[in-house]
From TrEMBL, chains A, B:
<dbReference type="InterPro" id="IPR000600">
    <property type="entry name" value="ROK"/>
</dbReference>
<comment type="similarity">
    <text>Belongs to the ROK (NagC/XylR) family.</text>
</comment>
<dbReference type="InterPro" id="IPR036388">
    <property type="entry name" value="WH-like_DNA-bd_sf"/>
</dbReference>
<protein>
    <submittedName>
        <fullName>ROK family protein</fullName>
    </submittedName>
</protein>
<feature type="region of interest" description="Disordered">
    <location>
        <begin position="1"/>
        <end position="37"/>
    </location>
</feature>
<dbReference type="InterPro" id="IPR043129">
    <property type="entry name" value="ATPase_NBD"/>
</dbReference>
<feature type="compositionally biased region" description="Basic and acidic residues">
    <location>
        <begin position="1"/>
        <end position="22"/>
    </location>
</feature>
<dbReference type="InterPro" id="IPR036390">
    <property type="entry name" value="WH_DNA-bd_sf"/>
</dbReference>
<dbReference type="Pfam" id="PF00480">
    <property type="entry name" value="ROK"/>
</dbReference>
C-alpha cells in the first residue's frame, strides 16, 4: 500500500497538481543530489506513463541518462509499487532481453469531484490515466446551503474510495471542481454566485484522510483539455460555460492562476461598456450577452433544467429566435475574444462545456468578429471533445499527475 | 578577457535573456551533474550580485549547499573573472576569516539599444547593474528607410563597445528594443507602424561579433520595471505608451511573450466595438481613444515633436480641453484594463513611458472606471519611476542577466 503524498496543510503541495503537467515540480528545490534524484524519478514515471511499456534501455535513451542510473531509479519505483516489470521483452533482439516496464495498475489513484449547479460527481483515475470508478448524482444545488451539499459529496467520495480500495488501489488525494472563485492555495470558495455560496472552506466537510485541492471548474476543464484533448497545443485559451462563462489560459503547459487565483473571469470582460448592469458591479459584461440567462431571454425561453440541450435542440430544428440569440452571443464572444487574443497571443482558442454543444450556432458570428477585428492574425478556434466531462476529469487527473510529478513522495512515505 | 556567451544563430539562446530573471535557465536541460553544476554556478552569481559582498560561508547558507561545494563553484567563477575576492572579511569573528566575494567590476557588460521614433540610444550595463557607457542621439526616424537608421545605430553600438573595452569590460551581447511587433525568437521586426517598417531582419545590419536579441520596447520596459522598479511585484501588467500603446504581462517574474511573440497588443483591445476604424483592422480599439494621435485630436492640438511634454505642460496649466482629452483617455484605459484585470488577475498595473508623465490627469477617470467595473476587486495602479528609460535599460540588463543566468557559458568559452 502507498501512503498519502502530501500533508493536507501544505499550501504548496495543494497548489502543485495544477501548476505543471510534466516532471519539473522540483525545479525550485535546492539543487542537490536529492532534488536531482526526485526530478529524475519523475522523468522516469512520466516517460513510462506516456510511452510505456518500455525497457530500461529505452527509458534511458529517452531521458538522456545512463542505463545504470535509470536502473537504480526504476528499482526504487518498483519497490514503491508505482512501476511493474512485465517480464522479458520480445526475444530475437541483440543483447540480453530487457524486461518491459509499465505503470502499475494497482497503486495510487487520483480522486476528482465536481460540485455542479445540477449535479454532484466523483471519479477515480489511476496513474495510467484510466477511470477506475465513477458516480454521478443529479441534484439541484442552486440556493442549497453548502453543508448538506458537501455531506452528500463526501458520501460519494467515500463510495468511490471504497470501490478503488477493493480493487487494490490507494486514493492519493482529492481535487474538487466548483463553479466559483477559489482563493489561490486554499480550500475556500470565495464566491459561487450560481450556488449562492460565499466564503466556504470545503476542508472541514470532506474526508480528512485525503490531501485536498479545490479549484474553479474552468481551470480543471482547461487542464483536462491540455492533458486529454486531441492535438491540444501547450498554449491556449480555454473558454467554457455552464451557467456562467469562464476561461483559463494555459501557457507552456501551465495554468495561469492569477495573483489571487481569480484569473479567467472572462464573463466579465466589458463588451458594450454602456450595456446592462451586471451583478459583478460592471456594465455590459460578456455574460450579459452570452451567459445562459441572457441567451434564454433573447430566445424567449424560460430558465429551467438542462436549457443547453433545449437550445441545441431548437437551434438544430431551425428555430429562428434561438438561432438569432446564439448568433448574438457569438458576436459578443468574438468581441471579448478579440481583446483576449490581442493581449495574450494564444496558439488557439478552445470552446468547452456548454459552448462546445452550441458551437455550430455560435461559431459563424464569433469567427467573423474575431477575424475581422484582429486583421487575420492567426488564432484558430476549436471545440473541445470532452464536453461537460472536462472539470471532473481534470480534477482527478491533476491528483494522479501530482504522483507522477513527485513519485518520491510515495516512496518516502511508504 | 571573456568570450561571447551564445552563438548568434541559436534561437534558444537569443530568447533566453527575456524568459527568466533568476538562475533557472537550465531547468530544461537533461538533469545531469553537468546541468546541476551550471544551475548552481548561476545561483552563486545571482546571490552575490543581489546580496554581495558575501563570504563563501554566507553564499553556502543562502543557497543551501555545503561550503565545500560552494568553494569549488566560486573558484571556477573567479577563474572566469566573473567574481572578485575582496580580501579578508572584518576580523574578530569566530573561525578562520572568510574572504568577501563581489561581482567583478571588469568582465562582461550587456549592451542595450533602442530605436525610437524620435531618437536612437545605446548603453552598456555591467553584471552589478551599473551603467558604464551611454549615448543618445535625437533623430526623427518616422518614415526613414531602415538601412540608414540601423547604420547609425550600429555606429553608436560600436562607440559604446569601444568605450566599454577601454575600461576593461567585454561586451557579452546586444539587445535592441523596437517600437513594433517582433517575431518570437527571431531578429525580425514584423511590423513597426510608427517607423513604417515591415519585415526587417535587424541581424545583417548590426555588429556580427555580438550575440543579438531583438524585442518589442514594451517587453523590455516591463522587464526593466521588474528588475529595477521600486517594490515592483513579480506579477504585474505593465502598460506603456510612446506613440502607440503596448502592454506586457509579467507572471512569477517571467514575461508572457505569446505564441508568435505578439502578446501585449493592449492598444487593440476593443473598447467601444462600434467606434472608429483602426489601422489594425478592428473598430473602437483603445488606441482610437487613448493613443497619442487621438488625445491630440481631442485636445485640439497638432501632431509634432515631443507632444507628451506639451500635453503635460498644458494640463498642468489647467487647459480644459487637454484635461478633458486626458480624462477621456483615462476612461478608455480603465475599460480596457477592466477586461485585462478580469482575465489575468495581476497583482498590480504599472503605467510606464508617456503614460507615467501624464498619469496625474489620466488616473482619476482610469481608477474610477476600473474600480467601479471590477466591484472593488483589489488591483492597484502604480506609476513607473523609470519613465522613458525603461526599454533601453531593460534591453541592456537582459544581456547582463543572461550572463548571471548561465555563467558557465563564459567559463567554458574563456
Amino acid at each position: 500500500m502507498t501512503a498519502p503524498l502530501h500533508d493536507r496543510d501544505s499550501g504548496t503541495s495543494a497548489a502543485r497538481p495544477h501548476d505543471r503537467h510534466s516532471g519539473t515540480s522540483g525545479a525550485r528545490l535546492p539543487d542537490t543530489q536529492q532534488g536531482m534524484r526526485r526530478r529524475n524519478l519523475s522523468r522516469v514515471m512520466h516517460t513510462v506513463a506516456a510511452h510505456g511499456p518500455l525497457s530500461r534501455a529505452a527509458v534511458a535513451s529517452r531521458i538522456g541518462l545512463t542505463r545504470a542510473a535509470v536502473s537504480t531509479l526504476v528499482d526504487e519505483l518498483i519497490r514503491s509499487e508505482l512501476l511493474d516489470e512485465l517480464g522479458p521483452e520480445r526475444p530475437g533482439r541483440v543483447g540480453r532481453p530487457g524486461s518491459a516496464l509499465a505503470v502499475s495498475a494497482r497503486g495510487p489513484v487520483g480522486v476528482g469531484a465536481e460540485v455542479g449547479v445540477d449535479h454532484l460527481a466523483v471519479c477515480a483515475v489511476d496513474l495510467r490515466g484510466e477511470t477506475r470508478a465513477r458516480v454521478i448524482q443529479q441534484v439541484g444545488n442552486r440556493g442549497r446551503p453548502p453543508e448538506p451539499v458537501l455531506r452528500e459529496l463526501a458520501a460519494l467520495v467515500r463510495r468511490v474510495c471504497a470501490e478503488a480500495r477493493s480493487a487494490g488501489l490507494s486514493p492519493a488525494g482529492l481535487a474538487v471542481a466548483v463553479p466559483g472563485l477559489v482563493a489561490r492555495d486554499t480550500h475556500s470558495v470565495v464566491r459561487a454566485p450560481n450556488l449562492g455560496w460565499h466564503d466556504i472552506d470545503l476542508g472541514p466537510h470532506l474526508p480528512p484522510e485525503l490531501p485536498l485541492t479545490v479549484d474553479n471548474e474552468a481551470n480543471f476543464g482547461a487542464l483536462a483539455e491540455l492533458w486529454l484533448g486531441e492535438g491540444t497545443p501547450e498554449d491556449f485559451l480555454h473558454v467554457s460555460a455552464e451557467i456562467g462563462i469562464g476561461a483559463a489560459l494555459v501557457i507552456d503547459g501551465r495554468l495561469l492562476r492569477g495573483t489571487h487565483g481569480f484569473a479567467g473571469e472572462f464573463g466579465h470582460m466589458p463588451v458594450w461598456p454602456e450595456g446592462p448592469s451586471c451583478p459583478c458591479g460592471g456594465r455590459g459584461c460578456l455574460e450579459q450577452y452570452a451567459g445562459e440567462k441572457a441567451v434564454l431571454r433573447a430566445a424567449g425561453l424560460e430558465a429551467g433544467e438542462d436549457r443547453v440541450a433545449l437550445l441545441a435542440e431548437r437551434a438544430a430544428a431551425g428555430d429562428k429566435a434561438v438561432r438569432r440569440a446564439l448568433g448574438g452571443a457569438g458576436t459578443a464572444l468574438g468581441i471579448a475574444l478579440t481583446g483576449a487574443v490581442n493581449l495574450l497571443d494564444p496558439r488557439a482558442v478552445v470552446l468547452g462545456g456548454a459552448l462546445s454543444r452550441l458551437a455550430p450556432w455560435l461559431l459563424p458570428s464569433l469567427e467573423r468578429e474575431l477575424a475581422g477585428r484582429t486583421g487575420g492574425r492567426a488564432c484558430g478556434v476549436t471545440v473541445s471533445g470532452l464536453g461537460s466531462d472536462g472539470p471532473l476529469l481534470g480534477a482527478a487527473h491533476s491528483v494522479a499527475r501530482a504522483v507522477l510529478d513527485d513519485p518520491a513522495g510515495v516512496g518516502a512515505a511508504g
